[in-house]
Every structure is written in structure tokens, then in C-alpha cells.
Amino acid sequence: MNRADVLGPVRPEKAPPSGRRSRRSATLVTGCVLAGLIALLALVSLFWLPYPADDTSGGRLAGPGDGHLLGTDKLGRDLFTQVMTGSRIAVEAGLGSVIVAAVLGVTLGVLAAFAQGWLDDTLAAFLDILIAFPTLLLAMLIVAARSATLGSAVLAIGLAQSAVVARLVRVLVKRVLAQDYITAARTSGTSWPRTVAGHVLPNIWPTLVVNLALQFGLAVLAEAGLSYLGLGAPPPNASWGRMLQEAQATFTTAPAGALAPGILLVLLVIGVNLIADGLRDTLDPATRGRRA
Amino acid sequence: MARYLLRRLAFLLVSLALASVVLFALLRMLPGDPANALTAVGASPEQIAAARQSIGSDKPLPEQFTHWLGQLTSGDLGTSFVSSLPVGPEVTSRLHVTVPLTLAAFVLAVLIAVPAGFVAAHKRHTWYGTLLSGVSQLGIAIPVFWLGMILIAVFALNAGWLPAGGFPPDGWSEPAEAIRALVLPVLTIALVMSASLIRYVRSATLDVLGSDHLRTARALGASFGQAMWRHGLRNASVPVISVLGIELASTLLGAVVVESVYALPGLGSLLATGIAQHDYPVVQGVLFVSTLAVLLIGFVADLAQRIIDPRLRGRLSGGAR
Lengths: 292, 321
Prior knowledge:
The complex is a heterodimer. Chain A is mostly helical. Chain A has helices at 21-47, 79-113, 117-132, 135-145, 150-177, 180-187, 192-228, 240-247, 255-283.
């Protein structure tokens, strides 16, 4: 899991030559199309599925075609139906984790930003240790304590990501707090809560939103990893990770089941990452021209 | 520097102590009684009580904790509830798989990512610069276990060049077999790790390329290579080292998925079974050793950053922020 991807805000590069702007929004559009396709699949799966989830009429490991767009799995269930359900689980996992991470991470990060001296050092180091502690281990502990459900997985991923968000927010808030307009607000009698709500948060939200978009992609990957290990949503919910795990043994004989969920997963994560890149360029003019 | 070293060492010990308290408390909060894992289904209350007594889980928690700490200071990680074998040797034998796996993957990832990231930044307007950035975008979106599955299908099942999984039962006494077993897992981790590292190296290089001091050096007559070597490398490496430390630590602990794909008897799989069986000493032992490793890696990374960047001296922890 590449949690280090999002550890630090990227520093601004020099403004690009004009005319690069349109290519930037092309990034955003491509991202929206890719992620939108998966989101659409997830939305449709709420109302309509090609086959009932437990329908095994297609025969085992049937190839693509003949009423089954992607063929069937080793139990005879329609793969496209499972892929659609999987897209819903992936989107739910991403959204849920990001909400947990955002609420916890922003609260912790803002509080940590006010710490001074040794407490500041300690908090920073504590967040570093938490970040190095992999999502998976935390998830394994939480799943052991509760049970293997999508909720447990989302909670675990969100908790682990909140450390990353908190670290970022802490740095961003510290930077804003050093600005003159904060001193001005404070000397004119604005209370701390009002200063944070009125001056700090509006100034950090572009960077924050970009980071949360990246966290969405990482959460989708983490949920797939957990499901692959059997720690995610239990059957009959077809999570992409579990589909891949089930199809691993028949990779060479029936490749569709081992490829389709993986490809969709990659498309969704690339889509969301492109959205993050596009948003960074659109929301934060200082970093325009940087596509890391 | 000596004073900093002392402070940083003290900080390391305090963190380790705190981490062990948290570890112990967290594990005791898990529901489920390890005594149940020891006794047969339908065991009498007396049998369960006897099992509790034999593993010491009937004692009050503070007593269990001090007992564990006492063992730790003498280098003893305790005895497994389930197998009744000492945890220390078990962890050590698993490290023989996990440490070479992680280190080899890490070195390979750095060897790939540093040149690739530099080229992606320096040649960002060429087709191969763009291609490198695109490949790293793809790399960070691929689930590590899926990449593992694909590599197995291509290189083990189709081509038959390498084993699809497992590790020789005699371990490193069959060095050729052991190395063959680790090639695909190392490649899997290294590819995924280098994809995200490339982005950091690229970003750090871009910062340096656009910096005033590099331009000044060039204006004073230094060639691009000289300027990069004398003024660029040092500046670019500080944020990269900070990321490297975190990547290495989380790979060490996060190898569990790759170990599962390739059926490797590593630290991750030991932890997974330990959690499933409520085998506290095993889970505690693995997590303690991993936490120690994470803290040591952070220590080394901080130290390296401080040696490279004098501006950071005077701060306790962390680099590029």
C-alpha cells in the first residue's frame, strides 16, 4: 500500500507557460470519465443486475459470451453481475473510509497544530509512527475484534488514513497560523474557533480536497487487499479483491475472472488520482504545471 | 550532534515503551478468550480455568504486563499459547524470509525509481519523460496482490521459469531454491514501491531544477552535471529520504499480502495466524519486533537527513516539513 504517496504537500513550481491550462483540465475530464463509468456501474447495480447474485444457471467457468458478458466463475455465477456488485462495494469503501479519515484527521490535525515545543515534537513523531503502521495490520486487529464485514474494513482503513490526513492538516494549519492575517484576526478580537472556521479551513481546503481524493483511491486499493485476504465484505458480496482471490487458481484456464475485476479496480483508482491531479491544478493556482 | 543523538535515542526508548503499553492494552481489548483456543469444544469450566492458569491469563493485567516487560528486557518474547513453543526463535526464522524480501525489494525499487524519477523530471517534455510519469501513475493504481497474480501467471505458470509460490522447507540451506522463490515476490513489491517513489524523486528533482541556487551555479560556469552533483543532489535527497524511511517501514510490516500471494512463511503470515488464534504472545512478539524496526528506521532516516541538511539540526524529529 503506498500510503507514502500523499505524505506531503507538493511545493509549488514556477508558473507554466500559458496554454498548459487546457491540458490540465483534460486530466480532470479523463479522470471524471473513468471514475464516472465505475460510479455509473455501481449506481445501476442498485436497481438492476443481469442475473441474481446466487444464479448458477450458466455452468461453471463458462467463457465470455452466450448470455454472460464476461462468462461465469467456478460456481457458475455470472461474472459481470459480480463485477457490478463489486463496483458498488469499492465506491462504498472509498467514500466511507474518506469520510472517517476526513472527520478524524481534520479534528486531530487542527488540534495538533496548536501544540508547541516538546508536545509538538511528540505529536509529530506519534503521527509518523501511526503512518508507518500499515493499514492492513490495523485492519486485521479490528477485524479480529469485530468480524469480517465491510464496516470493519472501512473503519480500519479510515482510522489508518486519518493519521495521514492529520499529519497533512497539522502542517498546513501551522503554515496558515504563521500568517499576518491570523494575527490581525486575533488582535481584532476573533476567537480561536471562529479564526479556524473563518480563516484557517478555507485556506487549507484546496490541498485537503486533493489529498482526500488520493485517499479515496488508496482506500479502494486497501479494501481490495483486505478482501483478498478474506478480511473484507463476507460472501455473497462480491468484492473485487475476493473475486480476484477466487479466480487466482484458474488464472490460466479462465482469465476473464482474474482480469476484469483488476482492470476495473485500476481504472477507478487511476480515474480518482487523475481527478486529484486535475483538482490540484484547478483549485490551487500556485501548483499549476506540476503533475507528480 | 552528540547531544542530538542522545536526545533522539532517549526519544526512541520512550516511544518504544509507549508503544509496548499501547500494544499490550490493545490486544487485551480484543474479545475472545485465548483459553478457548487451547481447549476442546465443550471443555468443562475446570479445564478452561486450568488452561487459563497454564498460560497466565488468569492473573491481573498489570501483573501480566510487568511479567511480559521483564521477559522482554532479557530478550525473551514469551511462549506461544497455542504451540507452546518460544516466540523468539519463531520470529527469527520468519525474519529470514521477510528481511531479505523487504530489503531486496527496497534496494531494487530505489535503483529503479531514482534514475527514472530524475529522467521523468529532467526530460518531462519528451515522450519518454511523459511515458515514465504515466507508467508510475499506472503503478500506484495496481493492487500489489493483482500484480503478483499476473507475474505468477506469466513467469511461473506460462513460462515455467520460476516457482509460483512457497519457500524451500530447509530455507537458506538451499540458497538457489530460496533465491528463486523470492525473485517474483521481490519484483512485485519493488515495482509497486518504485511507482510511488518515482513521483517523489520527480517532484524533488523538479524543485531543485527550478531553484535559484542551481541557476546561480550554472551562471557561474558549472556544467549541468557539476551543478546537480554539488548543489542538486543534497537538496533533492532530503525529502526523498524521509519518504524512503516510511516506505521501508511500511513494506516490512505490510508484506503480509505479498507473502499470502506467494505462500511465503514470513512475519506477516505468522501475525495473521496469531491474530486468528488469539495467540497474544505471538502477536505481541511480532508487533513488538516490527515496532522496534519502524522506530529504528525512523531514527536512521532522521539522522541521515540531519547529516545531509544542516538546517534541520535543532529539531527533534522529521525532515521535510
